[in-house]
Write a structure and sequence with these properties.
This protein has six helices and seven strands; from the N terminus they run αβααββαβαβαββ. By secondary structure, it is α/β, with parallel strands linked by helices. The chain has two domains: about 140 residues, no CATH class; about 70 residues, no CATH class. Helix 1 runs antiparallel to helix 2. The longest helix has 18 residues. The radius of gyration is 29 Å and the shape is extended. About 5% of the residues have low confidence.
């Protein structure tokens, strides 16, 4: 998401004239427009934004050869691809009294929410890889299928991860995780709430506990009113 955000911010800055090294993105070759609209305006320079984001964020990662850096490089690229694959066309109407007899259109980068939703979908189906899957020539050659098959899946647009998240439901001393057994949960909370029984019980179910509490009280009469005092 950071890589995508840098690309979007720089692309918009180019079209706004904030950055002197770049300007509006050129209209794609062969893009003739339509019968009642034409390419005009100042398109966001996504090409320069992607190039800047790659240079700015990938330098430190590209100097290392460990699996973490290589997965980060791949995921940075996926973030930038989420920008270019969700580019939008925005138009402005021209004509008497807003009749929109003719429209001029330009390419604009997607908003952050659109990119976030696209990456969230990829996050939900991210692919686990290990050092043996990486290879040395290209991260796109990961073999995500069992060894008995010869088919290779193109992972160029998938998010990758190399280490499973810890299971916070169970106690793990090495990671200083106390687990969730024995904790109180809120039975009326929505499932996504952190204190809901669905989240804390991790599918194990939960017990309803009823307690009877007995307290002693003393009633005092003061200036025409009753005061109830707890003697506990």
């Amino acid at each position: 998401m950071i890589s995508a955000g840098v690309a979007i911010a720089v692309a918009r800055a180019c079209s706004s004239g904030i950055i002197s090294e770049c300007g509006c993105e050129r209209v794609p070759k062969g893009a003739a427009g339509g019968p009642r609209w034409k390419w005009a305006g100042c398109s966001h320079n996504a090409r320069y934004g992607v190039k800047f984001a790659r240079t700015f964020l990938d330098v430190a990662e590209s100097q290392a050869e460990d699996i973490r850096s290589r997965v980060n490089l791949h995921n940075n690229q996926v973030g930038r691809m989420a920008v270019t694959s969700n580019m939008q066309i925005k138009c402005k109407c021209h004509g008497m009294s807003g009749s929109c007899e003719l429209k001029t259109c330009w390419r604009a980068t997607p908003d952050y929410r659109t990119v976030g939703r696209a990456l969230k979908e990829k996050y939900n189906v991210a692919v686990l890889v290990d050092q043996n899957n990486l290879g040395r020539k290209s991260i796109r050659r990961f073999n995500s299928t069992p060894r008995r098959t010869k088919h290779k899946r193109d992972l160029s647009r998938d998010l990758l991860y190399y280490q499973k998240s810890p299971d916070f439901c169970e106690k793990e001393k090495s990671l200083d995780l106390p687990g969730t057994r024995g904790r109180r949960c809120n039975r009326t909370a929505i499932a996504s709430a952190p204190d809901s029984c669905s989240a804390l019980c991790c599918g194990r179910g939960y017990d309803l506990v009823s307690k009877k509490i007995v307290s002693n009280f003393k009633i005092q009469f003061t200036q025409g009113s009753y005061t109830l005092n707890n003697l506990k």
